[in-house]
Amino acid sequence: MSYAIKLKRSANKDLKKIKGSYLEKSFLQIIEQLRKDPLAPNQGFEKLVPPIKGFYSRRINIQHRLVYKVDQDTQTVIIYSAWSRYE
């Protein structure tokens, strides 16, 4: 079973910065992994703590993170940010 990917408006803005940059390949690899199983132990995600509890973070590179939330009921990964760390 695969998960749907949904981008919030802020993540869409980040995607414009990523497209055509050296980060694009890493970003697309992470998206494919999230589509398969966003909570697989081998994903290397970090579970974020309050005030953003319930969110997860994946490194795109040393500076940039992909921040997302998983809706198990609808099998959807909602991406909130894909640029600077926790902005």
Automatic annotation (TrEMBL):
Belongs to the YoeB family. Pfam families: YoeB_toxin (PF06769). The keyword Nuclease applies. The keyword GTP-binding does not apply. This is Endoribonuclease YoeB. InterPro entries: RelE/ParE_toxin_dom_sf, YoeB_toxin. GO terms for molecular function: endonuclease activity; hydrolase activity. GO terms for biological process: negative regulation of DNA-templated transcription; RNA catabolic process. Keywords: Endonuclease, Hydrolase, Nuclease, Toxin-antitoxin system. It comes from the Bacteria. The lineage of its organism: Bacteria, Bacillati, Bacillota, Bacilli, Lactobacillales.
